[in-house]
Amino acid sequence: MLSRYVLIISVVCGVCSAQAAGQEALQQQQTPAAETKESSEPNEKSPEAKPKISFEKTVHDFGELDIGQKGECEFQFKNTGSGLLEIGRIKATCGCTVPTLAKKQYQPGEDGVIKIKYSGQSRPGSVAKSIYVNTNDTENPKVKLMIKAKVVPHIEVSPSELCFSEWEENAAAPDITLKSKDGKAFAITGFTSTNNAISIEFDPNTSAGDFVLKPKVDMQKLRENPEGTIKIRLSHPKQRSVDIHYEILSRFQVQPSRLLLSKLEPGKSQTKQILIKSTNGESFEIDSISSKKGYVKVILQQPSSEGIKLTVQVTAPEKKGQARYFSDELEIKIKDDETVTVRCNGFYHRDKGKS
């Protein structure tokens, strides 16, 4: 009886061993396949998964645009990497260029597009605007896109800029000539200027191929805004307006108009030269010179063939806290005439060991 029981137990143990061996073999056969499948499908958290942004083009040329004409273009891209592409900030260098993007994340193999809207400029000339795209592509984290154009005028303006004289009658304002370059007649429909300092007479019902305008200047308003813009609105189908920049020519000019000094130590001085000259070439005298804060001092004044030359001494004051620079203004009063100002900016010496 005992030997029979031993036989039964041996048979049962053999069956269990065979089943265990079969299961182990099955696991060994399945494991490589599972590992192969997992390794062939990298996920975005895997170190091997890297996004890559690839653009079809990085420059778009609009060609010729009319003044004020708007343009739209697209920059197609694709995630040609193995990881999730994330696009961060898209920054344009000019407010006239507005980029838009549908979404911020793109799977491997997925396409996208950045749309650009450009508002045409009001002056003729070449245009080059940049757009920077920030991404998590480690090899190309910032991509530079560019749009180009050539803005062509249909109205010829002469002079293209105005320089007024504050001591002559009507500021010595010259005539402004407008001429159609394509032969199409147009009318003047509006006229504005900064601070309403300049005006003209015109008839919006009169159309012609060219106009000669005679500006009238309000000297008081002009002095309040010595620089500004004239805008003339037109009915020309290809150019709706003309902008003319103007500035008032001061009777006296100072060269340089600003003093910049660097690597100064508190209590130490540097010398600079300033030339004051009359715009119309007339002789003049200096009545007085003063420094607002006392950091700038005139140590020599001498006449020259161009005007009057000043040698000034700039002394750096004691630093206040962590101040990196100081400023002052030198006021020069011309006898029986205006006062001209020279601004001064001085920067303290910085120790290499300090940030």
How would you portray this structure in words?
This protein is mainly β and 355 residues long. The protein folds into 3 domains: 53-152, Immunoglobulins (Immunoglobulin-like, Sandwich), CATH 2.60.40; 155-249, Immunoglobulin-like (Sandwich), CATH 2.60.40; 252-348, Immunoglobulin-like, CATH 2.60.40. The protein is built from 2 helices and 27 strands. It has helices spanning 2-39, 219-224, and strands at 53-55, 59-66, 71-79, 85-92, 97-101, 105-106, 111-118, 125-135, 142-152, 155-158, 161-165, 176-180, 186-193, 198-199, 207-208, 210-213, 216-217, 227-234, 241-249, 252-255, 258-264, 269-278, 286-291, 296-303, 308-315, 325-334, 339-348. The strands form 7 sheets. Strands 2-9-8-4-6 form a 5-stranded mixed β-sheet, with no helix packed on it. It has a 5-stranded mixed β-sheet with strand order 11-19-18-13-15, with no helix packed on it. Strand 8 and strand 9 (142-152) form a beta hairpin. The model is unreliable at 1-23 and 25-44 (pLDDT under 50).
